[in-house]
Specification:
The chain is of the alpha+beta class. The protein is built from 3 helices and 16 strands. The chain has 2 domains: 90 residues, Lipocalin, CATH 2.40.128; 127 residues, Lipocalin (Beta Barrel), CATH 2.40.128.510. The strands form 3 sheets. The protein has an 8-stranded antiparallel β-barrel. It has a 4-stranded antiparallel beta sheet with strand order 9-10-11-12, with no helix packed on it. A hairpin with a 2-residue loop joins strand 4 and strand 5.
């Protein structure tokens, strides 16, 4: 009788362990998001905004392409009833309805966007040979200025050099979908001479202002220009302008180069 009870208890414990293990395994699998490949396949093609008839995007493979030249392609996936876009960050959009020729979702404002699949083969031309274009000045700018202080002549020289350094600005397109726009930053050279004596010479990148400009603003801004503003007893004054492209927002840093060549910086007064 004792052996029977002991065997029964051991068997019971074993069965419970097996059941718990199965539940954990099943639970683990259920917790992992499974991509809806059928829904992804239905999204392949060119889609138009039903209200205006404009091309909204093209889904090809794992990537969504936009017709405007500044918006970067973005990786996408569909999990359940959610469209997930993965760019600089991850954006999720609830899917209201999806069919082979219809795609309805909510944008970041909660507005319902209705898209219909294009049947016009000419719509593909909106995406051919289109690469994101940087909307910076994209040109070399040189300035020479001669000023006088205390009977001494100072020669100020500035040069804006366009670069291939990318600045990514996150925004929303007309459908309320998050997109990443790419621009190119500048390096600005500043030199000051007193006759043949070099007072100061240096290259400025936007990172030079990291202690003066908020990090979130600096990451999306371009060092647009550095211009000479005035000279006084303290030295030569310059204005360094950092701008977020296609935005009225700007940040101005005042640079001061003393006659001895010492550089100081501060946020300019409004």
């Amino acid at each position: 009788m004792t052996r029977f009870r002991l065997g029964f208890v051991l068997l019971s414990v074993l069965l419970v362990a097996v059941l718990v293990g199965c539940r954990r395994t099943a639970g683990g699998k259920a917790s992992l998001p499974q991509e809806d490949l059928r829904a992804k396949q239905m999204l392949q093609g060119i889609w138009l905004n039903d209200a205006e008839g404009d091309v909204s995007f093209m889904a090809k493979g794992d990537t969504i392409f936009y017709p405007d030249s500044t918006s970067q392609p973005v990786r996408f996936a569909i999990y359940g009833d959610t469209l997930v876009l993965s760019a600089a960050g991850e954006s999720k959009y609830p899917i209201v309805k999806q069919a082979p020729h219809l795609f309805v979702f909510k944008n970041q404002n909660g507005d319902v966007v209705k898209l219909v699949k294009s049947e016009d083969p000419d719509d593909r031309y909106a995406f051919e040979e289109r690469r994101p274009v940087a909307l910076n000045q994209n040109r070399l700018i040189k300035r020479d200025t001669v000023v006088t202080l205390g009977g001494e002549k100072y020669h100020s020289y500035t040069q804006v050099n366009p670069t291939t350094y990318k600045v990514v600005k996150s925004s929303y397109n007309d459908d309320g979908v998050a997109v990443d726009n790419v621009y190119h930053d500048n390096i600005v050279h500043v030199s000051v001479f007193n006759g043949a004596r070099k007072v100061y010479s240096g290259d400025f990148r936007k990172q030079a202002f990291v202690r003066l400009v908020p990090a979130d603003y600096l990451s999306q801004s371009v060092l647009s220009d550095i211009t000479f503003t005035r000279i006084d007893a303290s030295g030569l004054h310059y204005a360094a302008t950092l701008c977020i492209p296609d935005s009225p927002s700007s940040f101005v840093i005042e640079l001061l180069i003393s006659p001895a060549g010492r550089l100081t910086m501060r946020v300019a007064d409004n």
